[in-house]
Amino acid sequence: MHLEFTLLPIVAALFLPGAWGQSGGSSSPLGVVVEAMNITLPAGSRAVLPCHSPRMVWTQDRLKDRQRVVHWDLVRSSPEYSVERVLDMSPGARQRVYNGFNKGRISIQDSAFNDGNFSLIIKTVVTTDKGVYTCNLHHHYCQIHQSIQIQLNITKSVRKERRYWDGEKTVFVVLLGKSVALPCVNRRSLWREGLQEDQQQVAHWDFQPPGVRPDRAARLVDLYASGERRDYGPLFGPSKMSVQEDAFTLGDFSLSILDLKPLDKGLYSCHLHHHYCGLSERRIFRLTVGPPLPSVPTTAPRIIQNDVPAPRIEVVEGPRVVNVILPEHRGYFVQHLGYFLATFMLLAIIVVAVIVLTRRRKKRGLEYDLRRLDHGNMISGGEMSLDCTELRTCHQEPMNSDHKNNQLKERDMVKDCNKDFEKLWK
What we know:
Layout: E1 2-6, H1 9-15, H2 18-22, E2 32-42, E3 47-49, H3 64-67, E4 68-76, E5 82-89, E6 96-97, E7 106-107, H4 112-115, E8 120-122, E9 131-139, E10 144-155, E11 162-165, E12 170-175, E13 180-182, E14 201-208, E15 218-224, E16 229-231, E17 241-242, H5 247-250, E18 255-257, E19 266-274, E20 279-290, H6 330-380, H7 388-395, H8 403-425
Parallel strand pairs: 2-20, 10-12
Antiparallel strand pairs: 1-2, 3-18, 4-5, 4-9, 5-6, 7-8, 8-13, 9-10, 11-12, 14-15, 14-19, 15-16, 17-18, 19-20
């Protein structure tokens, strides 16, 4: 079974057919779409379209005294900020005043939950009554909370006594010692007695075949909290569709469909209306019927003749190796690409450094050769110069005579060379 959940009306309007969005607005009388779901099941199977709402469990409101509460609070800003509960009240119970000084002086009408008038009556106003009063109405079963604020100021001048709106709340300026009634009126049926709640709750299922407009959808069944049920058309029946008998007791209005067929595909909508609480919700299901599942072949049981038990064969199960291939993450390629680029940049920096150093060495060698050449030119252009050929001729003369003759010859040659040097120096 394949389920796709979309819980918001906006998502439903994007992914589902246009009929969903047309019937899901908050201003539509059909109710607000709170859930949308796609369900695909094979033909011949059983479908359950879930529709649950704890707020539709009307049996929870049997103890109405605990479900509805009204209380007045006082916020003082001077001499220091403080919040004080003045009184509270529930249907069928006496009002409770929290400050002994206010007993008999501050009250609410006993018929507040009958006529919806929860105004606070203050007799003989004193200076300590100054502050912001808040009227809070709570209905725990319907999950409704309302409040209204009224500011009370005390004056000693008759001319300053008045009532006005300061942009956020109503302001009462009351003369010291006078009585005042701070208004808090809500006449909705939610806060008043005498209404049968089981007549205010209705649930029904609609079916919209493909190509049919929402306003042409067929009604399948109506359910009432009083126990009444109405079935419409041949589609809904005990052998085809059903809803639990104790739907309002459990808050479960799920629709069960047996033996799915291609004609059952379409849009199914569950409408929940609670007029007592002001609730109107709608849940939509798009049902698609696929091909039937293939039949599973059955194998005949093995029959052992002569009631002889089969020999027991012990099979040693070897270790199982499971190869799991995990798909590469997108970051894996990016990481390796980063490694490659970093390596390439490092090599490029090294090559550039080698080239720069080589060029500097060649430049220094060229400058050194030029300096040597300039130094040689300076020596050749000066007064000092040596004729190396003459020196070589003095030393290159062969010496193959006797030892004495060689010594004499060497002396003569030294003398001659000295003379030549003197000539050159001169």
